[in-house]
């Protein structure tokens, strides 16, 4: 058995785990023990990075023996059964007081279950969302840990040392107990889906409306990245659009199959929002758009269905104005996506009794993560000014931004519908905005219909109480006991 020389260990050495292990090893005072189910990845990491002075382990028992107590291990394995398998193995060889951190993309309800089960053994379990992909894991991710206050005391300094730094602050905060960290990471990914879909719609409209090439559109995105839309996703969009395929000489984007993959976190965000009763419509449309793209048989079968009778292009003289309209529509829709995401965080915190500081979440998303963006500072400021803010998009900064963009947003949605260009996230975000600001909604009619067929009752605008109309009788109204449902 090896001597206990490592203060931290990493289990799972695929892209994320190996880079996180290197990140940890590069920090003063850390000695990192590494373990992977198949030893091949451990050997590769040892061979490629001797400077990291890793302590390799080939069994879980060796891994445990290599760690100083209390032992701290970060798991970076395939979420689901892989995570359970590693937790079971580690609980066999760890002792009370040790800490197991799951840094994978676990479903937060799994994390709640695992935390409870592991806690019963006396070992601490922390579900920590980690964002930033391969590069972030190496140079500094945004980290969203849940778990107990006790674990945070040991883990906080380690995570702070490897996290991204934004404006001098490490992009990590103790989000809340048990599954809070993975809940927030899930919503982060939901917003990521919406952001990516909105960027895709902007690109599609500009390309089909103006006939600009991907490289020319890349320049537009680079320009946008110097303004209020500045973000990692806008930046990498320009990079992707500029890339030329070595084999064909065509823009890479034109040779990539247009079927978007998904590992599930976007769908979890929407499923959870449905359970919580939170309308995350922009995020949902982004998830559905990926599903639609990945239905080749249905798309082929529908490809002969008619579209608009007239072809659509933007006149040369109007092209700059159209591009600016699309930029504004993108910004407005992005505000909606973040507002919906934060609504879900508020509802989740209430449901699961987590004391989540919304401003702190926006602050730790400013660096390291995939949705890092300039305007996250504005979100932190909005919650600092009003911690009880009922909807982010009503905060003065965002309300003003929407005032300045909403006319352009409408023009873009109209033109997209007339041209037959799908813009589900742009249009559903606008519908959400209009729904929220409406004085009256047709929900009143829905309540009437529900009362008609199911005696579900309704409330009135002019007096308290719960009412039912005797639809199959003389249609008089009666006051009903109990509340409407
Ligand atoms: N890739 C990314 O950009 C991001 C990923 N994540 C999350 O981080 C985690 C790691 O991601 P990534 O690095 O891409 O790796 P993968 O999700 O591809 O997982 C591969 C790793 O899991 C291990 N593994 C799978 N099943 C088991 C098991 N039953 N027992 C032990 N080990 C197992 C594999 O070991 P072996 O080599 O033996 O097969 C390998 O080390 C995932 O949860 C992912 O969702 C989070 C943020 C970004
Ligand atoms: O967590 C991540 C980024 O934050 C991962 O990259 C995740 O895989 C992205 O989700 P999907 O694969 O469904 O696009």
Automatic annotation (TrEMBL):
Sorted UniProt keywords: Gluconate utilization, NADP, Oxidoreductase, Pentose shunt
Protein family per UniProt: Belongs to the 6-phosphogluconate dehydrogenase family.
This protein's pathway: Carbohydrate degradation; pentose phosphate pathway; D-ribulose 5-phosphate from D-glucose 6-phosphate (oxidative stage): step 3/3
Origin superkingdom: Bacteria
Record-linked Pfam families: 6PGD, NAD_binding_2
Positions of the 6-phosphogluconate dehydrogenase C-terminal domain: 181-472
Protein name in UniProt: 6-phosphogluconate dehydrogenase, decarboxylating
PANTHER family: 6-PHOSPHOGLUCONATE DEHYDROGENASE
The enzyme's E.C. designation: 1.1.1.44
Enzyme class: oxidoreductase
Keyword Phosphoprotein assigned: no
Cited InterPro entries: 6-PGluconate_DH-like_C_sf, 6PGD_dom2, 6PGDH_C, 6PGDH_Gnd/GntZ, 6PGDH_NADP-bd, NAD(P)-bd_dom_sf, Pgluconate_DH
Function: Catalyzes the oxidative decarboxylation of 6-phosphogluconate to ribulose 5-phosphate and CO(2), with concomitant reduction of NADP to NADPH.
GO MF annotations in UniProt: phosphogluconate dehydrogenase (decarboxylating) activity
Complex formation: Homodimer.
Catalysed reactions, semicolon-separated: 6-phospho-D-gluconate + NADP(+) = D-ribulose 5-phosphate + CO2 + NADPH
């Amino acid at each position: 058995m090896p001597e206990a020389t490592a203060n931290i260990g990493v289990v799972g050495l695929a892209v994320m785990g190996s880079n996180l292990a290197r990140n940890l090893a590069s920090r003063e005072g850390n000695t990192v023990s590494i373990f992977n189910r198949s030893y091949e990845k451990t050997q590769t990491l040892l061979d490629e990075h001797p400077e990291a002075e890793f302590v390799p382990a080939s069994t879980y028992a060796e891994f445990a023996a290599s760690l100083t107590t209390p032992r701290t291990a970060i798991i970076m394995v395939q979420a689901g059964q892989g995570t359970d398998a590693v937790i079971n193995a580690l609980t066999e060889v760890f002792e009370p007081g040790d800490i197991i951190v799951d840094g994978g993309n676990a479903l937060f309800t799994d994390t709640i279950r695992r935390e409870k089960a592991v806690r019963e053994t006396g070992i601490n379990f922390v579900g920590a969302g980690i964002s930033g992909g391969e590069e972030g894991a190496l140079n500094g991710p945004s980290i969203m840990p849940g778990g107990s206050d006790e674990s945070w005391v040991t883990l906080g300094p380690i995570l702070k040392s490897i996290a991204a730094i934004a404006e001098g602050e490490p992009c990590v905060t103790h989000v809340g107990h048990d599954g809070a960290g993975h809940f927030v990471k899930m919503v982060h990914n939901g917003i990521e889906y919406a952001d990516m879909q909105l960027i895709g719609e902007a690109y599609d409209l500009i390309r089909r409306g103006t006939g600009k090439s991907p490289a020319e559109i890349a320049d537009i995105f680079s320009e946008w990245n110097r303004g209020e839309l500045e973000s990692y996703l806008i930046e990498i969009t320009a990079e992707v659009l500029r890339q030329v395929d070595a084999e064909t000489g065509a823009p890479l984007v034109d040779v990539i199959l247009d079927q978007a993959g998904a590992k599930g976190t976007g769908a979890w965000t929407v499923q959870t929002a449905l359970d919580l009763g939170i309308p995350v419509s922009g995020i949902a449309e982004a998830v559905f758009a990926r599903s639609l793209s990945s239905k080749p048989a249905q798309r082929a079968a529908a490809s002969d269905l008619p579209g608009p009778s007239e072809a659509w292009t933007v006149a040369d003289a109007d092209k700059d104005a159209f591009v600016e309209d699309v930029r504004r529509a993108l910004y407005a829709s992005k505000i909606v996506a973040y507002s919906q995401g934060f609504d879900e965080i508020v509802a989740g915190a209430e449901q699961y009794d987590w004391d989540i500081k919304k401003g702190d979440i926006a602050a730790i998303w400013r660096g390291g993560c995939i949705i890092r963006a300039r305007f996250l500072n504005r979100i932190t400021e909005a919650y600092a000014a009003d911690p009880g803010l009922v909807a982010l998009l009503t905060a003065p900064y965002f309300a003003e931004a929407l005032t300045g963009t909403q006319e352009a947003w409408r023009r873009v949605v109209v033109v997209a519908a007339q041209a037959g260009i799908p813009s589900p996230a742009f249009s559903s975000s606008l519908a959400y905005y209009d729904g929220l600001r409406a004085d009256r909604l047709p929900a009143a009619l829905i309540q009437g219909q529900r009362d008609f067929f199911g005696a579900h009752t309704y409330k009135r605008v002019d007096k308290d109480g719960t009412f039912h109309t005797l639809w199959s009788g003389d249609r008089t109204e009666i006051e009903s006991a109990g509340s409407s449902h």
